Amino acid sequence: MPRKIKDRIVDALTQHGNGGFLVYHELAKLVFPKDKYPNAWNHPARGGPPGCYMVLSRAIREHGFYISYEDAPAVVYATVGLAGNLPTKDQ
Questions:
Q1: Which helix (H) or strand (E) holds 18?
Q2: Choice between 87 and 15, residue whose per-residue pLDDT is larger
Q3: What is d(CA 85, CA 6) in angstroms, rounded to the nearest whole number?
Q4: pLDDT (tens digit per residue) in 32-66
Q5: CB atoms within 10 A of CB 42
Q6: What is the model's pLDDT at position 24?
Q7: CB 17, CB 76: distance < 8 Å
């Protein structure tokens, strides 16, 4: 069974992040590796970002992760952080 997206985001930020922070595009590559989720990187027929960006943006918003667009020319350069989603000792 696939792991929940929130767990994959927390793992990516804690294991690969710089103090719990990653650039959005780097986070997307870790949460949706192309070898496991090849269709997630498909672009819509009429243009636009890959489908995994939509899913990741929604998960960041719904699960209360930190995202900063300051000094970011586009969402792919935004900084994403753990905020209140720090792993507990039980995890």
A1: none
A2: 15
A3: 9
A4: 999 999 999 998 888 888 999 999 999 999 999 98
A5: 10
A6: 92
A7: no
Q: Which two tokens stand for residue 28?
A: 């997307």
Amino acid type, 55: V
65 vs 53: CA distance, rounded Å: 15
Asked if residues 20 and 81 have their Cβ atoms less than 8 Å apart, the reply is: yes
Tokens of residue 67, six digits: 């995202």
Round the average pLDDT of the chain to a whole number and report it.
Answer: 86
48 Cβ contact partners less than 8 Å away, ≥ 6 residues apart = none
Q: Angle at which helices 24-31 and 5-16 pack, to 10 degrees?
A: 120
